[in-house]
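EI: anyone free to look at a 105-residue chain?
SC: sure, send it
EI:
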Amino acid sequence: MKTAVIKTGGKQYLVQVGDKVKIEKLPFEVGDTATFKEVLLSATDKTAKIGQPLVNGASVEGKVIAQARHKKLMGVKMKAKKRSRHLFGHKQHYTEVEITSIKTK
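SC: here you go
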């Protein structure tokens, strides 16, 4: 089974063909194909190619399944001894991608 480590949105993800990954929002429509050129590692059951920093000629393709937002996270800002509190919520946008192929030279 092929495995790869890709870098996108300032984070690294370990992916295999068929995986569904929620990554930082990308400018694609649902149904489009996303290609990730920043592959840090590509491995099979017998071999592994480690990039320095990237693996030459490697790419990972995936199909965009959804553009959505995560659940709301709540936060509080408070100033001690001032009776000042501020409650806020945040919902982060994400793109869900299903990995379709891992290509290496």
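EI: DSSP finds no helices and ten strands in the chain.
SC: 👍
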